[in-house]
Design goal:
Layout: H1 4-20, E1 34-35, E2 42-43, E3 50-55, H2 56-61, E4 77-82, E5 84-93, E6 96-97, E7 109-113, E8 116-118, E9 131-138, E10 152-158, E11 166-174, E12 178-188, E13 193-203, E14 208-210, E15 215-217, E16 220-232, E17 238-252, E18 256-258, E19 261-264, E20 283-299, E21 302-321, E22 330-351, E23 356-377, E24 381-405, E25 409-428, H3 437-442, E26 448-465, E27 468-479, E28 482-483, E29 495-496, E30 499-512, E31 517-529, E32 532-536, E33 542-546, E34 549-564, E35 567-576, E36 579-581, E37 612-620, E38 622-623, E39 628-639, E40 642-643, E41 651-652, E42 655-666, E43 671-678, E44 686-690, E45 692-695, E46 700-710
Parallel strand pairs: 7-10, 14-19
Antiparallel strand pairs: 1-2, 3-9, 4-5, 5-6, 5-17, 7-8, 9-10, 11-12, 11-46, 12-13, 13-16, 14-15, 16-17, 17-20, 18-19, 20-21, 21-22, 22-23, 23-24, 24-25, 25-26, 26-27, 27-30, 28-29, 30-31, 31-34, 32-33, 34-35, 34-36, 35-37, 37-39, 38-39, 39-42, 40-41, 42-43, 43-46, 44-45
């Protein structure tokens, strides 16, 4: 039997040959992709960065329906939900990531919505509707995007209000009795005041059967709305204001795989024993409110933006975590409130007759978190019940210049200075006084951390010809330190330090065959120091330490082709070979403490960093004779062998996932009917390991209809 990776390689070679033998007079050409990866608009082919960019049409064809689906297409990106939390995505990009959702841990892959940073990983799995494009910036982005981007950044850009009346309404039905609806409308109140209103709702019955309480869990019950206003004033003044609210009840509770079913025997849905004060209902419930203001105007020969973002998140969850013998081995009861305020003043300009593109800005972040959470063993032993309050105040100054060197060269130099202060405080809810701020101080645990860092970037790009650019770059990033806030004793709250990374890239951006074939390739080497890695210990502690270093050499390729007007092909290849270096001393067999060693004190395999990721996708348009066309689409994602837990636990064999669908689309674009499946053959692999393997959710299918109106 042919190995799946061999199949993909053979198909890729066949498709490339098909492209090359097409007549050069074909009309099809690739559309230009505009990105803001350097905090200003530019063609992705002119940016000396590793960027994967997907517009609205590509998101539809690649079946990217929420941000987690990006793991199916981006080179060297692996991820899944945090254990138990269907709203929280843990991204691992080029081997860097974070699998903790408590507020004293920060992600290594930052998420941004309309240039506003999303601080908490707890609710970063966004359902996508009315999205203009998504940019995934691979590698550290410390200069222009700041702290907590050692792995990269995911930048979601929503559509602005349109100048003419129009919109759409869509409804769908799918597996597990899923019902979906979404709608959007652009309403211009005048030439100077534009508006957009959007909403969506999703409900299904869930796919986890609890045979103890005779109920089904891991259901999706989510709704949200988005409202945006655009004010157009004199002198190129534009003011964009938006508000979003999302109420999402999505859990990812573990269940045993029995045939085609997922089965749970947990008694936690019945509630905590009566002697304990229960904080949340069984499952996971998040409520998120976001406000964004972006005021843009011409000033001092350039464009100035004043961007303010506010985000408020309430999260309640009550979840069980099994070990090999007991499905109710460990429980967490959590009630958290998280708020964030950011402000940024940014200026872009072309200087010296366009020979210099310059961007500079000031940035401020103020975050407050209060988390009331308790831990239980075997359903009756309360390990801890405490309220954690922690804050972060951070400010930064950044600047970057792209300087023309001769007729074809561009030299980039930039840097960011970041200064931040973090504080924590504890209150014990048990009456035993075990976990208090005073206990931390007595144990020598600092309750305040101050850090500062400079993250520069250097690059040189050379335009060999009109459609061929190469570059070389060196970029630094850093990720904040924090505390082990899941500790059940004062001593276990020991802080961990920041991690820093230098990434070196050699890249090519090229278009061939009269702009019918685009090939963007990158060779990189990442050198990360003081890697923050989380591990679970046998006594129920969840500890993060600085576990030495991580070196990652790799290669990435994205190929897009349009052999003719009715055929499009997409191929991405990610190769990496991560290894731990500079490991801390003191490991003894059997190892139960050090995350970067296996149980026998050999260097462990870095988690969630498969050596190969491949995606091959294609879509067709088949004209029909009655005013419509059939548009089939399909993609395959190959993920190489990997581990998802510390100490080389949670081993995954290689797997290939298939997505596919077909749409019937009116020629005048008034309506569209779609039938599609995700993970069509119900393949299973492990995304997390916490005492046991946490597999991917089962495959799904959906049929939906969309009606477009107005412009």
């Amino acid at each position: 039997m042919t190995h799946p990776i061999r199949k993909i390689q053979w198909i890729s070679a066949t498709l490339l040959v098909a492209i090359l033998i097409q007549p050069l007079t074909a009309l099809a050409q690739l559309e230009e992709v505009i990105v803001t990866a350097e905090r200003r608009e530019a063609s992705v082919q002119d940016v000396p960065l590793s960027v994967s960019a997907y517009g609205a049409e590509a998101l539809e064809k690649l079946q990217i329906e929420d941000t987690l689906d990006l793991i199916n297409v981006v080179p060297n990106l692996f991820g899944g939900n945090n254990t138990g939390l269907g709203t929280a995505n843990m991204y691992y990009l080029r081997g860097q990531g974070n699998d903790e959702s408590i507020a004293t841990f920060d992600p290594a892959v930052g998420t941004y919505v309309d240039d506003v940073y999303v601080t908490r990983q707890n609710a970063n799995n966004f359902t996508l509707f009315d999205v203009e494009r998504i940019e995934v910036l691979r590698g550290p982005q410390g200069t222009l995007f700041g702290r907590n981007t050692t792995g990269g950044a995911i930048n979601v850009i929503l559509k602005r209000p349109g100048e003419e009346f129009g919109g759409y309404a869509a409804a769908g039905y799918g597996r597990y009795n899923e019902w979906m609806g979404r709608a959007s409308v652009d309403i211009p109140f005048s030439e100077n005041v534009l508006s957009k209103f959007s909403a969506f709702v999703i409900h299904d019955d869930g796919w986890l059967d609890n045979i103890v309480v005779n109920d089904t869990f891991n259901d999706n019950d989510t709704f949200g709305f988005h409202g945006a206003l655009r004010f157009l004033g004199a002198d190129d003044l534009i003011w964009d204001v938006s508000v979003d609210y999302i109420d999402s009840k999505v859990a990812n509770i573990w269940g045993a795989i029995v045939g085609d079913d997922r089965i749970s025997t947990s008694v936690l849905p019945l509630g905590l024993p009566p002697q304990f004060n229960q904080k949340a209902a069984y499952g996971n419930d998040t409520k998120t409110l976001s406000l964004i203001s972006n005021l843009s105007w011409e000033a001092f020969g350039g464009q100035t933006n004043f961007i303010v973002g506010y985000r408020d998140l309430d999260q309640e969850f009550l979840l069980n975590f099994p070990n090999a013998t007991d499905e109710d081995f460990f429980w967490i009861d959590n009630d958290g409130e998280h708020s964030m305020l950011t402000g940024e003043l940014k200026w872009n300009a072309e200087l010296w007759d366009g020979k210099v593109n310059f961007v500079t800005g000031l940035y401020y972040l103020d975050e407050d978190n209060t988390t009331d959470f308790a831990d239980y063993l075997f359903g009756f032993l309360q390990l801890a019940d405490r309220t954690l309050a922690n804050t972060t105040k951070s400010w930064a100054y950044y600047a970057q210049a792209d300087i023309s060197v001769g007729e074809k060269g561009t030299f980039t130099i930039g840097a960011r200075y970041t200064d931040e202060t973090k504080k924590i405080g504890l209150a014990d809810n048990t009456g035993r006084g075990i976990l208090t701020t005073a206990n931390l101080i007595a144990a020598g645990i600092p309750t305040k951390i101050t850090e500062s860092n400079v993250t520069p970037r250097f690059a040189y790009a050379y335009q060999f010809q009109e459609d061929l650019m190469g570059y070389i770059s060196a970029t630094k990033g850093f990720k904040s330190g924090g505390w082990n806030a899941r500790g059940t004793s004062a001593a276990a709250f020991a802080p961990f330090g920041p991690e820093t990374i230098w990434s070196y890239e050699l890249g090519m951006r090229a278009e061939w065959l009269d702009n019918r074939l685009r090939t963007n390739a990158t060779v990189f080497f990442s050198d990360l120091k003081d890697l923050q890695t989380t591990s679970a210990t046998p006594d129920g502690q969840f500890l993060t330490t600085n576990a030495g270093g991580l070196e990652v050499p790799g290669f990435e390729l994205e190929l897009t082709a349009v052999p003719n007007d009715n055929w499009e092909i997409f191929l991405s290849i990610g190769l990496q070979d991560p290894k731990y270096v500079d490991l801390p001393p003191g490991c003894t067999v059997p190892n139960t403490t050090y995350a970067s060693y296996d149980v026998n004190c050999n260097p462990a395999t870095p988690k969630r960093a498969p050596k190969q990721t491949y995606t091959l996708g294609t879509s067709f348009t088949i004209p029909m004779s009655w005013g419509s066309s059939l548009q089939p689409f399909a993609s395959a994602r190959y993920i190489g062998k990997n581990v998802v837990g510390t100490r080389s636990t949670g081993v995954n064999d290689a797997v290939t996932l298939f997505n596919a669908g077909i749409s019937l689309v009116a020629d005048n674009q008034d309506w569209m009917a779609t039938l599609e499946c995700n993970n069509c053959f119900n393949e299973e692999y492990t995304t997390s390991y916490l005492f046991v393997d946490y597999p991917t959710p089962p495959g799904t299918w959906q049929i939906r209809f969309q009606y477009n109106f107005g412009n």
